[in-house]
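Deliverable D2.4 — example input (structure tokens):
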């Protein structure tokens, strides 16, 4: 992805949000490209694996009572965000999608 740091992208998805437990940015083939916090990869991966057992997720969220899981796919990237229920899932989804869109646009503009 050139100059864009996908670990930093995961951190920006969580910036200013109390209650985010993990954010994971994945490649189109499911490889971890970035995670926040640093120890959040395991939780994010667990959530991703559970989503994939049901379907090939594209966009949405699950409110599980104690946690909210948000997933968004944009171009070559997928983001998984796990948060406390105090955060509104629709707002989380909008934020994640906007940042994935920006990352995709940056990737397209950057020379190989």
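Example output (designed residues):
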């Amino acid at each position: 992805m050139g100059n864009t740091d996908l670990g930093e992208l995961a951190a920006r998805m969580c910036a200013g949000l109390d209650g985010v437990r993990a954010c994971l940015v994945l490649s189109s083939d499911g490889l971890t490209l970035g995670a926040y916090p640093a120890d959040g990869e395991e939780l994010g991966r667990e959530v991703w694996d559970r989503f994939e057992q049901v379907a090939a997720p594209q966009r949405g969220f699950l409110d599980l009572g104690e946690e909210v899981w948000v997933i968004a796919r944009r171009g070559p990237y997928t983001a998984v965000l796990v948060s406390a229920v105090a955060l509104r899932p629709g707002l989380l989804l909008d934020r994640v999608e906007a940042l994935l869109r920006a990352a995709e646009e940056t990737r397209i503009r950057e020379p190989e």
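The CA atoms of residues 72 and 97 lie 6 Å apart.
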